[in-house]
Design a protein that fits this description.
Blueprint: H1 2-14, H2 16-43, E1 46-52, H3 57-67, E2 72-76, H4 79-88, E3 93-97, H5 101-106, E4 114-117, H6 126-151, H7 158-167, H8 196-216, H9 218-225, H10 228-236, H11 240-268, H12 273-300, H13 305-323, H14 337-343
Parallel strand pairs: 1-2, 1-3
Antiparallel strand pairs: 3-4
Length: 352
């Protein structure tokens, strides 16, 4: 029995490069395509022109803080360039930090510090305006604190008072409201969750591992057709160990491909440790269950290429119904392993 198993493993050893390619294909594909994906995400950010006419530290600070938001792509321009870019639609809007920006904020005169250029077709620049306004208000309030202390003839220097006030905005503002997003079923959505595109990529990795495992089962069909399983039964009086060992070897190979790709994605995207552990644990449970059920169905059904194609078709249906733009509903969706993996994860929002 072990001889037949070793023959299957020996086929991989004879072509180690091919085996490594199949094993690492999801990981290699992700690392290859991820830079292109990052570029496309960057291109979807709102292009905003910022003109800095005031040569002061505060003007640069506002620009730097607003530019941290990944939804915004800041473009430095002159005043004339910004006006032309807005007119041509090359940027969503332009914000001109006018000369005397720092002095105006120090004196509390916020309204005349920034010029906002936009067209009637500008829709996505409002939240940028709010961010710039929030940063200006933050600096103005810090200056107000420093000015008040100076009026009280305090011994504290103006800069010291300003910096002390600014520290109290980190890591959170002094006053804030906590908003909790909820689904129509009123289930809380946690901030600590994976982005939707990562879930789709994970579903692709899962599909790949599942189909590879199914294709490896073709070796069992070949052994049965060649009479090898019958000889194992004649010699050992049981074929249980034969089937168990093949499940472990084939399942181990498919699982290695999945977890290498999964953890590669989580690592390169700087995913938090809690999510990494949670998704790995849940993936072990779901992947093992899926492969085991597929193996059982294969053994109880006619062990042929046709049965393997039927299981592969079911895997494709499971994936397709997950990625379709509409959400399938009904009790039958609970039979789909992709639904188990993505929707039922107890470590993820919306899980069990």
């Amino acid at each position: 029995m072990l001889t037949y198993l070793s023959l299957n493993v020996h086929k991989w050893k004879r072509r180690p490069f091919l085996f490594l390619i199949v094993l690492l294909l999801p990981l290699i594909s992700f690392f290859t395509l991820y830079p292109l994906f990052k570029t496309s995400v960057s291109d979807t950010a709102v292009p905003i022109a910022i003109v800095v006419e005031d040569d002061s530290e505060w003007a640069g600070l506002v620009q730097e803080r607003v530019g941290v938001d990944k939804r915004i792509r800041i473009r430095d321009m002159s005043s004339e360039e910004a006006k032309e870019a807005v007119q041509k639609g090359n940027v969503e809007a332009a914000f001109i930090l006018q000369e005397g920006f720092m002095e105006n904020l120090k004196s509390g005169n916020i309204s005349d510090s920034v010029e906002w250029l936009r067209t009637e077709g500008s829709d996505l620049d409002v939240f940028v305006k709010e961010q710039i306004g929030a940063e200006m208000m933050r600096l103005a309030l810090n200056a107000k604190v420093a000015n008040t202390l100076q009026n009280w003839e305090s011994s504290v220097e103006w800069e010291e008072a300003f910096l002390h006030s600014d520290k109290h905005w980190q890591p959170d503002p002094l006053f804030q409201m906590e908003f909790v997003a909820k689904s129509p079923e009123q289930r809380e959505v946690l901030e600590n969750q994976l982005e939707s595109w990562k879930l789709v990529v994970m579903a692709i990795f899962f599909l790949y591992a599942w189909i590879w495992f199914i294709s490896l089962l073709n070796e069992v069909s070949r052994d049965e057709k060649a009479g090898r399983i019958a000889r194992v039964l004649l010699l050992r009086s049981t074929v249980r160990r034969y089937y168990v060992m093949h499940f472990l070897i084939f399942g181990g190979a498919a699982s290695a491909a999945y977890f290498l790709a999964l953890n590669g994605m989580l690592y390169i995207t700087n995913t938090g440790q809690e999510l990494v552990v949670g998704w790995n644990v849940w993936s072990v449970i779901v992947l093992f269950t899926t492969l085991l059920l597929s193996y059982i169905v294969f053994l109880l059904w006619i062990r042929s290429a046709a049965s393997l194609m039927a299981i592969i078709l079911f895997a494709l249906i499971s994936f397709t119904l997950y990625v379709l733009p509409f959400q399938a509903s009904g009790m039958w969706t609970t039979l789909l392993p992709h639904n188990w993996l993505i929707e039922l994860n107890p470590w993820e929002a919306g899980g069990m």
